[in-house]
Amino acid sequence: AFKIVPKLRNWEQILYLTEPSTWSAASMYMATRIFASNLKEKMAQRFYNLVLLPRIRDDIAEYKRLNFHLYQALRKALFKPGAFMKGILLPLCESGTCSLREAIIIGSVLSKNSIPMLHSSAAILKIAEMEYNGANSIFLRILYDKKYALPYRVVDASVFHFLRFERDSREMPVLWHQALLTFVQRYKSDISSEQREALLKLLRYQSHPTITMEIRRELQNATCRDIEMNEPLL
């Protein structure tokens, strides 16, 4: 009988009559399977945001880890990647209250599963423009590590994200430095020579005892995109 709920016009009201907060973890997984398969992306996004995400966060807060069935529900939710990004990942980052534990667990779902480049690019663009917190660095590092051929607009937004902290009085955490290192390792050939110089200058103000040395080495050995374009064809 539950399978017909996504097909109903007033599916949200019917869904709340079933009291999702009382569902078992296995029931949440089965419901996510049904909704990910049968709902349009916008409707799936609402289900993820209003039902699945609060349950995931409550479970992690209470047990300090995520129930196996709920983890599988997250993996199944990626069946609709746009809805996953807009209904789970971005609201979590925008909340400003995402814990590092939540970021690591949800990030592991992102790292272990394939996500279309378009959706990942849009997520990087949005996260790069948000107010900073450590969890955002975890998600950025994981998305950079997927080694997509990112559009220059996304690469530029990522560079500006890091450059924002040049004059920041805070000492940036190791997560921030790890995200910068991963970005430079994967996309050093996609930045301009001007951006490379700006990032090298950034390292004078924001440094880490071991990671900064690696970042500087990567940048100094980079062949930037404007240099590649200006090279004569043989």
Automatic annotation (TrEMBL):
The cellular component terms of Gene Ontology attached to this UniProt record, alphabetical and capped at eight, are: cytoplasm; nucleolus; preribosome, small subunit precursor
Pfam families xrefs: Bystin
UniProt-listed GO biological process terms: rRNA processing
The GO molecular function terms of this record are:
snoRNA binding
In the record, the note on similarity to other proteins reads:
Belongs to the bystin family.
Q: What is this protein called?
A: Bystin
Report the source organism.
Answer: Triatoma infestans
